[in-house]
Structure formats: structure tokens, C-alpha cells
Amino acid sequence: MTDDSQRVVGGILVGTGLWVAIIFVMRNVLKSLLSWHGWMYNRHGHMNIKSSIWMFLVRVFSGRKPMLYSFQSALPRLPVPPVKDTMRQYLESVRPLMEDEQFQRMEGLAKDFEKNLGPRLQWYLKLKSWWASNYVSDWWEEYIYLRGRGPIMVNSNYYAMEFLYYFPTHLQAARAANAIHAIMLYRRKLDRAEIKPIYLLDRRVPLCSAQWERMFNTSRIPGQETDTIQHVAESKHIAVFHRGRFFKVYMFYDGRLLLPREIEQQMERILADKSEPQTGEQALAALTAGDRVPWANARAEHFARGKNKQSLDAIEKAAFFVTLDDTEQRYDTANPVESLDSYAKSLLHGKCYDRWFDKSFNLIVFKNGTMGLNAEHTWADAPIVGHLWEHVLSMDPLKLGYAEDGHCKGSLHPNLPGPQRLQWDISEECQNVINSSLNVAKALADDVDCHIIPFSEFGKGLIKKCRVSPDAFIQIALQLAHFRDKGKFCLTYEASMTRLFREGRTETVRSCTMETCAFARAMIRDDTREERLKLLKDAAEKHQSMYRLAMTGQGIDRHLFCLYLVSKYLGEESPFLKEVLSEPWRLSTSQTPLQQVELFDLKNHPELVSSGGGFGPVADDGYGVSYIIVGEDLINFHISSKKSSPETDSHRFGSNIKQAMLDILNLFQLDKKNVK
């Protein structure tokens, strides 16, 4: 090798090494910057000097045009909180729910755990946190979701609604086609990593994007002791259900994605198909709605070979699942309560055999053109599905649009092969399992009491004038409503995300606090307005503080959950952990965030946005409440409970929520002030 060649090779090696070193340093500096969460403690709309400098540095080290997964290696790991802090926060959270004698007993158990078993279990968690990307998420997915042996319908899956007041077309095939095309465009952007990273704080603080990886081509597979998640790299078709028949529909022809009018053409062919379901086919999907073990046994016994395996593969390896529902659902202004309750129940469980609950998500399009989603919970949390749904709703009526006759824009394809009808050979023995699963699912579905409240008296616009966090305001209203509804307080679950950390999912904010209970009692006692306002401010500040702790990895419930798993692994009995993990969440709440505000003109068209979604009750004698803050003047509440419980009534609770919201706003007497 000549001297010139050596110099060139040496220069390349040095340049490459320098480039790798620069990237390594930038990544680690960014990781250190993202580990600091002091910016959370600034007053809303104000930024101190330290936070401003930090923000500038984050922007510098983030690069010019980051893509969806650009920040993954720079996100910090979820920290393991000290046992002492978790014990203190736990005792603080249960104090308003326990009598003095019961609390003193629990305090003794907690102190004993903190002194003896706790440090040993903590050592194992610390060890895991050093080598795992996230010390919680894999256990959370396995033990909270995949190992559950009961039905995932209602108990785990959740739903998303579309527009309430806007109906782009009455044609079922056209609506399905635009939605399917928009979803496939989203998948293409996702495959190319063209979706922008998700941020907090005015697009400056990146969140983890790991949950997007299994959005498409994914299905939950039943097992004897635990289910698994099956994800395939590529899928060129979708699975469609209509009137008891299953179809495989390819989304590509001549190397390109089908256009909306061409997809509508395929949907029209399915709707026009008058063939009857094969023996056992109509209720087949009920297997995914019932208990998991019978489904696992039936899958191994009856779907492991031949045409049944091929057809099942077509469903499980589809990009996603579509139901062309033969019922009509819509918000009816002449019958608002019943129409919305029916719409919610249909999205949550349908007929129990017309959704494939194991798929990552189901697109459901009703006979009159209304639509919605049903999503499986294991692979991701609701904000990830919500991001996709916002994309679909922003594209459907405005960017894709419809012709004057209600059909999709464009023209039919003269040579497009039709959908493939899936073939089944379902034995009598398998039919018995299907019918058994259907009976289990129907009993569960019939017991669900859903109620939707489009709360339009006021929204976050007025709440912000009260100088109270909208989320804190709503959570305090829920506590007051529950106190009036049941005459007591309960352990309350509010979902908070931990996606500031790598592979983060959720943490619990225990919204029932001493401060919130004091405020609720003051409202019942009819204390003076000034006393109530002071207690409200204290409760709101406490809620904000707990929310920050949860988001920054200092919550307690995931820590307690992992400590319990380690104790079981080591064969150690902990009376404290056993009791803590068995406490029921009788009020489970979640906010559906609107993440892509720029996609919607909320000021001029607040009706053109998702009306949120909901989930089933977590406890048999409790409530599930989901809410979405839409623009400045609307909040939609989705309430669920079980009809079999004498303690709950979703409609009664809804009335209490409305009254609580109005009563809290009235404390501020905004109508008596010159508020602009």
C-alpha cells in the first residue's frame, strides 16, 4: 500500500471514528438533558431561566429533522423509586379511605415491609433496571394483559368514537373505503418513519415511540397459561366481516395502494354478496370474546391445519380487521341518551361475534355510515390508537372527501379482482365451544351499562379562567360526584403516561386524596364559598403534584406491582403487598388527549374531531370514566358500570358528574367578573 493510500485509509478511519464519537457524545448529552424534569414545575405559560437554557440545549442536541424513532436511544430509563418514598406515598393515598384502627394496622405492615423484605426485593428491581430497557413494561404486558384468562372484550379492549354531529356520507361502503385508505396511508408513513415524533411542552420534549411498532399486522394469540402477541413484518391485505362471513381483501394492485373508490368497489362487492355463512362461521369470532383457555384449546384442536388454518392466518396476519356492521348507530338529537348509549355499547362489544377482539384494532363501519374503533390493549395504550384515529378523522371528510352522491371520489377499476371468501370446516365439537364462548360473552355484554355525556355547558376555556388545571378540575368533580353518588370515597385510578422514559407505558395517579375529600365534604356541608375555594385550590395543587410524580417515574403503583412479582418469584410471602395488590379500583378514570391539534380547526369546526372513547368498568361494583376535552367549550364523558351491581348506575353517576362540574364552576362566580 502506498503512502497516499495509507493516508486516505487513515483519514477515513479517523473521520469515521470522530463521527461515531460525536454521535455518541450528543446522544449521551441529550439523554442527560432529558433526565431533568424541572421544567414541569414552571407556572403554566411561564419559563424560568434554567428551563429556557435547558430547552435551548435540548433543541440543539435533538438534530434538525428527527423522525418517529429518532429519540429512542436518547430517552432515559425509568428510575426505581426508593422503597421509603413509595411507602410514604401509599399510606398518604389510603389515609382518606381507612378508619383510624385500619390505617394504623396498614401503617405497621408498611413499616415492617420497608425495614425487612422491601430492601431485598428492591435490590432485584435495581438489578433489572440496569439491564432492561424498562423495568416495568415487559412484566406489565405479560401479567396484566397476556396472562389474564377471562374475556378481553369489555374487560380489556376499549373503543373510540368518531364525529358526533357531522355525517360525511350515508353510504357504508364509501365511508369504510375512505377510512381504510386513510389507515393504509398512515401505515405507509409509519413504515417509512415519516410520522413526526410525539412531544410535550410545545413540541420540545420527546416521548417514547416504541408502542407504534405493533400497530399493524398484529394479533393476540391465545395460549393455555398466557397469550402471546404475533406481529408480522408485512401484510398486504385486510380481513372483513359482514353478515356472518369473512373476507380477505388485498389492498394493493399493480404494485400500488388501492384508491378510495377502488376500496369502495371491494366493499360494495361484499355488501352485495348474498351467500349464507358456512356452518359455524357466523359466530366464530365469539371465540375471541369469551374465556381464553377454551379459545386456546379450540385453536390448537380445530385450527392447526387445512383450510381452517389458512383462513385463520388470513385474519391474524391481516393489517387490521374491518366489520361492516348491519346495524345503524348515530347520535340522534331527538333521542340523545339512548342513541349514544347504544353507539357506545356497539363499539365496546357489538353482538359479541362481529368483532375479532384479538386484532390490534377493529374498524367498525355501521350500515348508515357512522364508524368507530375497537382496540386490543396489550400492544399499546389508548393515545397511540388515538393518534391514528385523529389522522383518519382529519383526512376522511376534508382531504379525501366524497362526491355529491356520497360515493368516494375517483372512478371504478375495470379489472380489479374481487375479495376472497374465507373457507371453514367447523366441526360440531368446535361449534359447541363457539356457542359456549358466545354465552359467556353475551352475559358480560348484557351486564354493561354505558352512558355518554356530551357536556357542553362549559369547557377548558372557562376552567382556565379559574386558574385551575382542566384535568385537576375534572378529577375533583369526579370525586365530588362519586361522594354524592355512593356516599363514600374509593380508591381511584387515573391513568398517566410514563413515555418520558424509554418503553414507558402508564402509571397511576391516585386521585382520591385527603385534600380532595376535604373539598367534597365542604361542598356537602355547605361551607362558605371562600373556604370551599381554598380547599379546591389545595386539592388541585395536590393533584398536579401527584401527576408530575407519576409522569417522572416517581409514582408508586408500578413499583408496588414489580415488588410483588419479585416476592412471588423468590417465594416470599408479604402480607403488605398481598393486601395492597388486592385493593379494588372502584373508580377507574382516563383522559383521552387530543394530540394533533393542528389537524383540526377547532375554533370554526369543533364538531370535526373525535368525541373520545371509553372502556368497561374495572370493578364489578365500580365505574369506568373516560373523558376528552374538545376545543374550548365541550367535554365528552364516557361512563360504564355493571347493571348487576346494586351500588352503581351509569346514568345516575352521569347526572352527579354534570352537577359537580356546575357546582365547582359556580364557586368562581365568573359571571360576576369582567372576564374576557
From TrEMBL:
Keywords of the record: Acyltransferase, Fatty acid metabolism, Lipid metabolism, Membrane, Mitochondrion, Transferase, Transmembrane, Transmembrane helix, Transport
EC numbers for this chain: 2.3.1.21
One GO location term (cellular component): mitochondrial outer membrane
Catalytic residue positions: 377
Recorded topology in the membrane: Multi-pass membrane protein
Transmembrane segments: 12-30
Localization (cell): Mitochondrion outer membrane
GO biological process, one term: fatty acid metabolic process
Family recorded in the similarity comment: Belongs to the carnitine/choline acetyltransferase family.
Protein name: carnitine O-palmitoyltransferase
Organism: Coilia grayii
